Amino acid sequence: MNRTVTIEVKQLDRVVIRFAGDSGDGMQLTGDRFTAETASFGNDLSTLPNFPAEIRAPAGTLPGVSSFQLHFADHDILTPGDAPDVLIAMNPAALKANLRDVPRGATLIVDTADFTARNLKRIGYDENPLETGELDAYHVVPLNLTGMTVESVKEFGLTRKDASRAKNMYALGLVSWLFQRPVESTIKFLETKFASKPDIRDANIAAFRAGYNFGETAEEFSVRYEVKPAAMPTGQYRNISGNLALAYGLVAGAQRAGLPLVLGAYPITPASDVLHELSKLKRFNVTTIQAEDEIAGVGAALGAAFGGALGVTTSSGPGISLKSETIGLGVMLELPLVVCDIQRAGPSTGMPTKTEQADLLQVMFGRNGEAPLPVVAAQSPADCFAIAVEATRIAVTYRTPVIVLSDGYLANGSEPWQIPVIEDLPTIDPDFTTGPNATNDKGEPTYLPYLRDPETLARAWAVPGTAGLDHRIGGLEKEDKTGNISYDPANHDLMIRTRQAKVDGIAVPPLEVDDPDGTAKVLVLGWGSTYGPIGAGCRRVRKVGGKVAQAHLRHLNPFPSNLGEVLKSYDKVLVPEMNLGQLAMLLRAKYLVDVVSYAQVRGMPLGAAELAEVIGNLVEETEGIDDDARHMGEAAASLTHGEALHTEPNGRSNGHLHHPEGAR
Amino acid sequence: MSTVDLGLPSLPGGLHGVPAADGPQNRKEYVSDQEVRWCPGCGDYAVLAAFQGFLPELGIKRENVAMVSGIGCSSRFPYYLSTYGMHSIHGRAPAIATGLAVSRPDLSVWVVTGDGDALSIGGNHLIHTLRRNVNMKILLFNNRIYGLTKGQYSPTSETGKVTKSTPMGSVDNPFNPVSLALGAEATFVARTVDSDRKHLTSVLRAAAEHRGTAFVEIYQNCPIFNDNAFEAFKDPETRDDAIIPLVHGEPIKFGKEGRLGVVRDGFASLAVREIAGLPNGEADLVVHDAHTDDPAYAFALSRLTDAGVLHRAPIGVFRSVERPAYDDLVRHQVETAQQTQGPGDLQSLVTGSDTWTVN
């Protein structure tokens, strides 16, 4: 087939693409491959997988739809994008479930194979939406992807069912052509993945190539798109997801402390991948125990910590609830323990595969008695690495359980990561006690397990096997210094205050504020995975002339020591959260500052445009502009290219795929 | 999914890997400076004394003994021993001890627990520890009552028992701890009595020598809330008819003048019979074999225990079989990974295979 139309290449500065299909259609894999191609090309990127908790909900139904969204750009970006420019829908349910997120003007590439009357009726379409004109506002590309896939692999003699399974690779090939992605890594990947099944391997590669060639030769597409590599700081990069970064960070922390790592964990969405990754890393002196339940997971970690290892447990909100009592024991024993809470939508079982940040108050206060412990939170997928190292530093240095907060969005999302030099990471000194540290009243050398370092208030830590330092610790209140059981009222008060003072005194870096010219009256303060959307929202507001400062907390207990001062130096402090205002409550309680809480709890990341509108409105309100005269929020929200740090060169904008109507 | 051969390491003895003491030790070295705070007459005193007397004979370094307990009267045990110890939280000692045992092959790990701690709140950890066969010795002090909370019925209390929380009698069917352990396919299961120091010590010795989890139920009298629950085993008038002694390789024979014995009875069951009434007399008795691989035999033995008020029960080692220990296997995998793949290079791990460079 020869083309009669020349293909035009248009330059884009950024694209948001979403792959959607049945849970069994391999959409996550397809998204991962497109991400890998895009990363190796050098774009900045951010991803958002979105899938049902059911492994295989009935095929063709709305609950069974799984999707993967990728935002890639020629500049530094912060979010996986609010709305897709291109939706690839592998069946009618995928089209219906995702259409509400797709702005008019966007491109819909639809596999028509499953658009039968029966399938359509099942999901509530009386007529075929591809034929009724209801999609006229979109650029619809209907293709029989399944049929073409089966045709392209017929030489391998597979059943129709097996042959049609390669349709995701056909679709990937097509969009790889459309966006000029390098394809070598995907072919290499398929060769390795299906090495033991030559038929399947060859069929997938053939389907992938056929999809690519279809774009090249068919006349459905008159335009290809190019997104140039992003200018990023020099260095070596890779793409990494939050859970993988967390696993690597835990290993790095253990190595920098010179301790073996023992993970006790029970499978739970969305934390299980940390267990999977660590279980592969035995050669790094990593031991993983898949425990009988959440309580045993943290118990094993604490037992290993008693033995002198770095004890780690990983879970999500429901599991953290179960671990509370053991974490409280860790507070009392004053042993290092790293507890990772990969938050998901709650309460109770909630929405296991959806993201949320509503466990903050649980991890701060969800234990009996006065049981303070440090809390840190990662702000991006790659930051999960650094936050794990930081948690290890605090746990080992201060002999305390530390909570690491991540969430489903960070866990499964990915972004380019400038690979750190391991040798440059801080060293962590467990400072084990190996000999007597005191003298008893008979003048003999002795060991006091609760004798503290005057600087850090960390207690002495002697591990079993150390001669002459045997001692007993437990959950009962202990006497200062000796650690013996004590019911003395004054001692209890002293110990309560000492444990609190230890946590309050943990050295954490000061909060940095991004306030470009130092004249903003509004500060937007967040924590956790809202970093990207808040940053993108602030950039949009600045782009339309608004003045706004941004700061993000990675340390939630203790707070950075300059936080109170920062809060008081702005007229208004906006705190966006994916909960009902948990950080806002802590800030009000501690600093008596009447922060403005912006709370959305939808199980999805906050949108950049949504935040731009909220921030813009607050900036104008703070500057005394009347309600009906305000325009900044709306203007910032409807920007299509407001998130780049620097102004785009002229002439770029003619190549955009579409001009969205604005925020959802 | 597939399975692989784990390349099972076969390690000798429960104390393999634990460093030997520099010289002989005595009981006093194992006595801590803490005042013992159990009620006068509590069976725990006898167990503590026996244990302190027994530890020196293991010949291991004192600092390599680690005691982990849960919550309950018996769980105060670690405070009274000058070894490393952790008095943890209710029911969780086996889970905590699992982490300790896995990370420290050089320790002799002991769990001290009670009938409420191990069988009620901590039941899940107990059965999973037993099925995994983690290197630890679990001493379950069974007094058939909640003592520390002042007298509620426990999961081993007999049906109908009147306690503070069951004024009309308990409607719960009790656990037989030995049956439960055998149901979880524990590799070492024994029962002994607090007041029989010689027997108690011999069971502790066998437990210590076992590689994997050794489960020891100790009948222990609570003089305050459940006094004389085990009187049948202590009263010289009744004890010969109450105790069914299990001695490996010996016919199971007991009772005054040795008139009773254990015989096979129907499908996978055992029964107590008067020897005089047996067709072949003593030749019909079951010869105890603790190494029987099928736990059904030991389970049948455990069913000879009275479920209600105790008048008769087998005492001794029900089962002692070899199976690779969980922690040995876990460490074996870590060592194998290091040997076959070399020690991990973290820089190369975090770098991965798909990178690009920005100049």
UniProtKB/TrEMBL annotation, chain A:
Keywords: Oxidoreductase
Keyword set includes Membrane: no
Region Disordered, annotated ranges: 642-664
Protein's recorded name: 2-oxoglutarate ferredoxin oxidoreductase subunit alpha
CDD domains in alphabetical order: TPP_PYR_PFOR_IOR-alpha_like
InterPro entries, alphabetized: 2-oxoacid/accept_OxRdtase_asu (IPR022367), Pyruvate:ferred/Flavod_OxRd (IPR050722), Pyrv/ketoisovalerate_OxRed_cat (IPR019752), Pyrv_Fd/Flavodoxin_OxRdtase_N (IPR002880), Pyrv_flavodox_OxRed_cen (IPR002869), THDP-binding (IPR029061), Transketo_C/PFOR_II (IPR009014)
Record domain Pyruvate flavodoxin/ferredoxin oxidoreductase pyrimidine binding: where: 260-482
Gene3D superfamilies (UniProt xref): 3.40.50.920, 3.40.50.970, Pyruvate-ferredoxin oxidoreductase, PFOR, domain III (3.40.920.10)
Matching NCBIfam families: OAFO_sf
GO BP terms in the entry: response to oxidative stress
Source species of the chain: Kribbella caucasensis
Domain of life: Bacteria
GO molecular function: magnesium ion binding; oxidoreductase activity, acting on the aldehyde or oxo group of donors
Keyword Oxidoreductase in record: yes
Domain Pyruvate/ketoisovalerate oxidoreductase catalytic: 24-213
UniProtKB/TrEMBL annotation, chain B:
Pfam families: TPP_enzyme_C
UniProt cross-references to SUPFAM superfamilies, sorted A to Z: Thiamin diphosphate-binding fold (THDP-binding)
GO terms under biological process: cellular respiration
Gene3D superfamilies xref list: 3.40.50.970
UniProt-listed InterPro entries: 2-oxoacid:Fd_oxidoreductase, THDP-binding, TPP_enzyme_TPP-bd
Thiamine pyrophosphate enzyme TPP-binding domain mapped to chain residues: 71-218
Keyword Transmembrane attached: no
Entry keywords, A to Z: Oxidoreductase
Region (Disordered): 336-359
One example GO MF annotation: magnesium ion binding
Membrane-crossing residue ranges in chain numbering: none
PANTHER family per record: 2-OXOGLUTARATE OXIDOREDUCTASE SUBUNIT KORB (PTHR48084:SF4), 2-OXOGLUTARATE OXIDOREDUCTASE SUBUNIT KORB-RELATED (PTHR48084)
Full protein name: 2-oxoglutarate ferredoxin oxidoreductase subunit beta
